[in-house]
Structures are given as structure tokens and as C-alpha cells.
Model the fold of this input.
Amino acid sequence: MSEVKNDDEILSVSKLKKSFGSNTVLSEVDLKLKKGETVVILGRSGTGKSVILKCIIGLIFPDSGSIEIFGEDFLSIKQAEKSKLRIRIGFLFQSGALYDSMTVRQNLEFPIIRQPDYKKSDLSGKVEEMLENVGLVEAIDKMPSELSGGMQKRIGLARTLMLEPEIILYDEPTTGLDPVTSNEISHLILDMQKKLDVSSLIVTHDMQCAKLVSNRIVVLKDGKFAAEGTYEELEKSDDEFVRGFFKFE
Amino acid sequence: MEVKPKKKQKLKLPASSEEFFQKIAGLASFAVKFLIELFKPPYEINETLKQFFMIGYKSFPLVAITGFIIGLTLTLQSIPTLDKFGAASLVPSMVALAVILEIGPVITSLIFAGKIGSGIGAELGSMKVTEQIDSMEVSGTNPFKYLVVTRIFAATLMLPILVILADAIALFGGFLAINIFDYTSLKTYLVSAMANITFSDIIPAVTKTFLFGMSIGVVGCYEGYNASRGTESVGIAANTAVVISSLMVILIDMVMVQLASIIF
Ligand SMILES: Nc1ncnc2c1ncn2[C@@H]1O[C@H](COP(=O)(O)OP(=O)(O)OP(=O)(O)O)[C@@H](O)[C@H]1O
Ligand SMILES: [Mg+2]
Done:
């Protein structure tokens, strides 16, 4: 997909640094996300892609650097304001992270019924609609333990979309799914962007998904982004390492 | 990915004095946060009721059996001894004093710590490890309120009720034991059992059980909520929760008994 043409910067990460003990995971990460843009993060397993997303949402506190979301300094605002901002940001966990003591319906309703300005009418038919999107309406009264790994992932995605976030951070949305479902999820991500002008940051190893949804791709290596460009540009990169992600044979 | 040799994980009791004080501070600030969040709306009423059921109602059978057996055996063992001094008629009163002041609250709380402390520690620990707590946090809800406040509150309110029930059942066990030797009516038994117990005995005995309940809830939630990564930390959380909360029960008991003897 082509580049997004506007200058509304909705998320800006700069000079992000994070180590766990002596293990330096991120050394200098800079990232900008515009309104309506979809950026894909590539990188070998264990290089810190999930850590970047968790820093952005505030689950991991970086050692240094700054994170600005919707123009606010996310690292220094108060907890109450942080919660308010977080409602506008969706996060899909790599593991799905469904609440295993609740049914699928309760999982999806959980964040919505706890909003301060919640009205019962907000909810009518919404759970069913979101489950329809991920093709799992029949699972509505099941417990997470009764679902397969891929189904849990799709429920996780439906739950993330419930609050209609403006930014969505996806941690490997299609990993562990069959090719048909993967393709459906990729199209769902694309729809979200087109219909609702959602900005997305996607960590994925699924190059078909990356090709379909990305406006821009960044490649994480040794704690910083080693390359940046559109799918077509990076596919023809001079760098052997970068091209390695695009080889299928 | 680099694989690091894992340190052998044993039951994690604080190793150094620094860790010890960190844990104390952590527990204290957890308790303070609980008290602050408890009174702030919105209230998680449904979840609180569910926890009353899980923590209170489901512990009742265990607590009841223990109470009954303690009352029964204590009486059975006291009768021959006191009989030698011609004081067998004091048995109900002695058993009642022992059960209501000390044995009932402490034994019930220790059993409660084993059942509920480990249960909460394991449940919250596995929610932490599988990122469910993180997931609540990023969706703008307050997991502390939903998970921690409800459980500590339920433990604080349910334990005193369980203790009172256990005391009553223990006294009933004592009544049966006395009837093995010779016939007494329930009324006579209760009158002589309560003869030496005053209000100022009962108030501190009940008050301390609130503190026991709260500390068991706080420790269980703290250990689970702060579990580290990996499934083994779930076991560690459950285990540590039982050890520390049992210890807390004994320590608080000691302090409260001293305090009560000063005040009353
Ligand atoms: N909470 C944490 N505490 C300690 N180390 C951590 C923590 N989270 C991540 N790490 C370490 O950071 C590194 C990067 O982890 P991360 O989960 O971000 O990898 P990833 O790029 O998402 O890999 P994958 O593609 O396999 O999901 C790993 O070495 C991991 O051990
Ligand atoms: Mg990851």
C-alpha cells in the first residue's frame, strides 16, 4: 500500500532505551505513526518487538526516551489520565490474554461496562457484531478454555476492537492461525484502517499480512530500527538481513 | 534467542534484609492502597458478592469440621484431668474460654490462610503470568479494584463470620463430649460455658479476626499480583502466600493479645 499523506502525528517514540538487568533489549528506538497509517515491525524472535509495544502502552517503563501519544507526554502523565488515553488505544496481546474465569461475552463486555460514561444502549448487538467480524459468533457463551489457540486469538482481537480505539497495537495478530483465517484477519485490519481511519502498529512474521496492510515497514535489529520503507522498497533492499524477511523459498 | 541458565527456584522467602524490608514496605503499601480504593466508587458489587461466596461459603465445611473436632477432643481430654481435682464442672467454662479467646480464631485463621491464601495467590499469579492483569490495565479498567479490593474485602468480612460459626460448632462438639460421660442439657451446658466469659473477652477476640482476614487477603493478593514471569512463579506465589500469611496470623495474634490486656 502507498504512503499515507498527512502530517497528523498521533504517536511519536524517540530515543527509547530499555534493558533488563544486563540484557539491553532496546538501545535507541525512534518511531512515528501518523493518523490512519499502518506500520509493520519486523524482527527476529526475541529482539524486543513485544517490548516496544509494551513500552508504548505503559506496561513496561523504559529506562530513557520519550513517548508522545495524541500530543501528550505518556511517560509523565498521571494514572487517571493514562487510563483515559489507554481507552483510545487498543492492544492485542501475543498470547490473547483472555480472562479465563469469564465467558466470551463477558470478556468482550468487560472494558465497556466499566467506562465512566457507560450506557446500556452502547452495548446492544455490539458483542455479536464484533464476534461476527472475527467469525466466531457461535462461541459467544463459551469459556476461553473451551476454545482453540487460534480462536482465543480471534476473540482477543474482537475484545480489542470493542472500544473502537484510534490506535491499535497488534502483537502477532495472525500467528498460529490457518492461512484462510490469517487472510481474513489481515482484511479485517485493513477494513479498520479504511472505515475508521485507525492507526496501527503491527508486529508480525506473516509477510502476506505485512504486504496487504502496511503503509510502511520497519526492521528491528540489535535494539534499533535498521531499515525503514514500503514493502516494495525493502523487498529490493541491498541489505541481506532485511531481504531475508522477504524470501519464502 | 539467548538461553540463560536458570537459577534454582526454591520457596522464595526473603533472602537478605533488604529484600525483607522491601516486602514489608510492599505489603504495607498494598494494604494502604486497598483501604483507599475500597471507598472510591465505582464499586465492583457483583464480583464482591462472588468472592463472598468463593471465600466465605466455600470455606465453611472445612472450618466447621475442624471446629467440631477441636471442641470435642478438647473436652474429652480435659474431663479426666480436671476430674482428679474435683473440678469437672469447670470443663465447659474452660473449653469455652480456650475456644473463644484463642483456639477458635487462630486455628480457623490458619486453615483459612492455607485454603484462601494459596487460592488467591495461585489465581492472581496465573492471571499475572498469562497477562490477564496487564490486559485489564491496558483496557483502561482498574484491575486492582476488580481483583484485589474485592478479594481482600471478602476475606476481611468472611473470616470473622467463619470464626464465630466455628466457635459455636466447637462448643457444640464440647457439649456432645460431655454427654458421653453423663447427661447434661444444652441449656445447662451453655450457662456454665458462658459463666466466665465477658463482653470484654469477646470484643478483642472478634476484632483480631478482622485483622487476620485482611492480612491473609493482602498477602495472598500481593504475592499473586506481583508474581514474576513463568509458570513456576504461580506455585511460588501460592506457597509464599500461605507461609507469610500464617506467620502474620500468629504475629498479629501476639500483638493483639498484648494490646487487649492493656486496654481491657
Ligand atoms: N518483563 C521482562 N523481564 C525481563 N526480560 C524481558 C521481559 N520482557 C522481555 N524480556 C526480554 O526481552 C527480550 C525481547 O523480548 P520480546 O518478547 O520483546 O521479543 P519479541 O521480539 O517479541 O520476540 P517474539 O517474536 O518471539 O515474540 C527477550 O530477551 C526477553 O527475555
Ligand atoms: Mg513478541
Observations:
- Residues 19 and 25 of chain B are 10 Å apart (CA to CA).
- Chain B has one domain: 45-263.
- Chain B has a mean pLDDT of 91.
- The pocket of adenosine-5'-triphosphate (ligand 1) is lined by residues A 20, 23, 25, 43, 45-51, 94; B 229 (CB under 6 Å).
